[in-house]
Here is the input.
Amino acid sequence: MGNLLKVLACAELEPGQIFFLDFENAQPTEAETAVWNQVNAVLEVAHGILAELQSYNGAGQEIREAIQNPCDLQLQEQAWNAVCPLVAKLKRFYEFSLRLENALRSLLEALTSPPYAPMQHLEREQALAKQFAEILHFTLSFDELKHDAENEVNNEMANRMSLFYAEATPMLKTLSNATTKFVSENKTLPIEDTTDCLSTMACVCRVMLETPEYRCRFTNTDTMLFCMRVMVGVIILYDHVHPVGAFAKTSKIDMKSCIKVLKEQPSNSVEGLLNALRYTTRHLNDDSTSKQIRAMLQ
Here is the structure.
């Protein structure tokens, strides 16, 4: 595929600004290596985190039996032995979210810094763009697999963990907050540099998904779902950062086309993504555009 294939035309972009993000084969250039290595160390851990979450069974049965039989010391011990490793696992997940937040910040700095425009960054630094996409893919995968678990542990970390797991999409909330914080702390950087980076990625992912000629270039069957998760992820980040949000009529993201692409896929593979968008639209008012978006998401 090469580092850059000029094969996709994106309606929201300026004429001539057409490119393909090589999510499968992009490799870091010398200029990208430092940031790429830093982020790669975090992404290598992400695969194990998802595997752990997939095998998470909880301790609901043991806890219920212990509560129902408070004088049975054996059941109390069984519940304790079942809960302790799960608390440790949840703690690791939470601590990893903090590492992911730092990795995202490094990528945002690299992909929005002068003198290049966001479009130029995405074209020039495909390996970093791919890592940004991988973080979003992991984040939405984690939130789809997330199990609720309530444990009483009297310390500050436990309180922060409780707030983390109380969110419907805790990892995505972490990234959204990190993106908002990045924008607020970099006041000399135009907010458009960040939002244009996000809207461009949403556009490119959508076009790759809706165009059979280019979709068939994927060599990995999982790349379709990868693109869908990345598209939804950047839409939600854009909605958090942009003053008017992703669903407004003036948004640079073609939301109707994005939702249409998701709706055309098998429901079992996109229901979690559609739910994430439904949850995000809860703040919308009742204007005609908002009503149309909500109707499409039904």
Remarks:
- Residues 156 and 162 are 10 Å apart (CA to CA).
- Residues 1-17, 147-155 have pLDDT under 50 and may be disordered.
